[in-house]
Write a structure and sequence with these properties.
- The complex is a heterodimer of chains A (about 375) and B (about 90).
- Chain A has about 375 residues and is of the alpha+beta class.
- Chain A is built from six helices and 26 strands.
- In chain A, strands 2-1-3-5-4 form a five-stranded mixed β-sheet, with helices on one face.
- In chain A, about 40% of the residues are buried.
- With about 90 residues, chain B is mostly helical.
- Classes of the chains: A alpha+beta (about 375), B mainly alpha (about 90).
- Chains A and B meet through strand 4 and helix 2 of A and strand 1 of B.
């Protein structure tokens, strides 16, 4: 079993994907789910994280097409070639195309999209075909393949040799290849915290934000990424995932409508689309803060109202994302509007109508409709502890 | 220069093969095993060595008997729906 002699891999662990043209064989929501599950096959076995993008410039573009479809490899009608994908790289690199003259299903009739897509994404990540009939990367379609353990040992060995072993302990990728965090270079470096103990009872976060279908937890210069449906958590230095960011993050929030996250450090912020940090950092004064505001403790976007709330010591501001102006009548005292919260907020994240306020190792679940705290939990439970 | 193949072996390799089988095999080997495109089907006999060696490459990849001939097992694999990525190229 060999993968490319010229090792062909993405030079990052957070990879974006986008679905361009859909098939008419399945509802779009079903295609979305099957594609996400097919990517999860590789995410669960590796240090990779896949973030859905709505742009046409994602690393992995998924398209359904027939015959001639814009690359040098026309499809051939039903049966024969089912799909193909390109190895990691710019432009068409990573893209996966599915022959829409096939009948795509979620079950055993026709061709199961989940099985074929999981195979094609292997190519998108740099794997080649395997001669082992048990391998997911075997060239021919097998409807009998168990959808539980799709990957063979070789598949797992290869993906880990490409992207670093599954993070039983955090690894980082540098010009020297994959290194565990106890690498002397790493320990002696500016990074004081070799490895965050994510289950310590007093774990707290500097910032928490949704980003795509994952939740990002920032602490010092470290990052944990937890996929909403998955149990495994990716972790490592922030700039391992976002090379442009060399500092810690004080606050972060996600505006779903724009598929954009905002990461704030002192008086500047970066915007992140997919897994790409866009351009240079900008001043937080862009939001309309008065000059004396030079640091934000926490930020959270409330999808229901279109407002982003910025928390600073014992006050907070409300920013109207639709009109992109600060709401009048602010700042207000946090304790006046959020009963039960009369302390500085470390981080905040909005999920399903609740704001979760992270205060040190505690998390307060705030019902935004009832305007009251309805529960408390430990911060480390968010990392599966 | 391609080694000459005794006439009877050529016949043996291609006997019983329908034009359809040859077409399927040629397309398959071009797509997945880098069989050079400029070999028109009709002149297959003159280019048999590379055709045969490509058939053997494919048979070896799939763990079949590497006879170099288009036996039923080989044709069956060639007819199986599959991924469009080459088995031998990046």
């Amino acid at each position: 079993y060999s993968h490319n002699n010229r090792v062909n891999r993405w030079n990052k662990n957070v990879i974006t994907y986008s679905i361009g043209r859909y098939t008419s064989d399945l509802p779009h929501s079903m295609v979305d789910s099957l594609i996400e599950s097919a990517l999860s096959v590789w995410a669960r076995a590796s240090t990779l994280t896949f973030v859905r993008s709505r742009t046409q410039r994602a690393d992995i573009m998924v398209e359904f097409a027939t015959f001639e479809h814009g690359d040098a490899y026309p499809f051939d009608g039903s049966k024969g070639t089912l799909a193909h994908a390109f190895g990691p790289g710019e432009g068409i690199g990573g893209d996966a195309h599915f022959d829409d003259d096939e009948t795509w299903t979620a079950g055993s009739k026709g061709f199961n999209l989940y099985l074929v897509a999981a195979h094609e994404f292997g190519h998108s990540l740099g794997l080649r075909h395997s001669q082992n009939p048990e391998s997911l990367m075997y060239p021919t379609y097998k409807s009998s393949r168990s959808s539980h353990n799709l990957l063979s040992k070789e598949d797992i060995a290869i993906i880990n040799s490409l992207y670093g072993p599954k993070n039983s302990q955090p690894y980082y990728y540098s010009r020297y290849g994959w290194n565990p965090l106890y690498n002397p270079w790493f320990l002696g470096s500016h990074f004081p915290l070799m490895m965050q103990n994510k289950c310590s009872a007093d774990l707290s976060f500097d910032a928490v934000s949704t980003l795509g279908d994952a939740t990002f937890f920032f602490k010092d210069k470290y990052l944990w990424i937890k996929h909403n449906q998955q149990y495994d958590i990716k972790e490592g230095p922030i700039n391992n995932f976002m090379p442009k960011i060399e500092s810690k993050i004080d606050a972060a929030f996600w505006v779903p409508r724009r598929s954009t996250a905002y990461l704030i450090h002192e008086s500047i912020y970066w915007t992140v689309k997919g897994s790409i940090v866009k351009g240079k950092p900008k001043p937080i004064s862009n939001f309309g803060f008065p000059p004396w505001v030079q640091e934000i403790d926490a930020a959270v976007h409330i999808v229901k109202t279109g407002r982003t709330l910025f928390f600073i010591h014992d006050i907070y501001y409300s920013y109207n994302e639709n009109r992109r102006v600060m709401d009048a009548g602010y700042p207000q005292y946090i304790s006046d509007d959020f009963q039960g919260l009369n302390t500085t907020i470390d981080a905040a994240v909005y999920k399903d109508g609740f704001i979760y306020f992270f205060v040190g190792p505690q998390v307060y679940k705030y019902d935004y409709t009832q305007k009251q705290v309805v529960g408390t939990e430990k911060a480390n439970t968010w990392l599966g502890c | 220069a391609p080694t000459s193949i005794p006439e009877e072996e050529v016949t043996a390799l291609l006997t019983g093969q329908t034009q359809e089988d040859l077409k399927l095999a040629t397309e398959y080997l071009r797509h997945y095993y880098n069989l050079k495109k400029e070999q028109p089907l009709a002149r297959i006999k003159r280019n048999l060595p590379s055709f045969t060696s490509k058939v053997k490459d494919m048979q070896s990849f799939f763990g079949l008997n590497t006879t170099g001939s288009l036996d039923s097992e080989t044709l069956e694999v060639m007819s199986t729906p599959r991924c469009g990525v080459s088995d031998v190229e990046d």
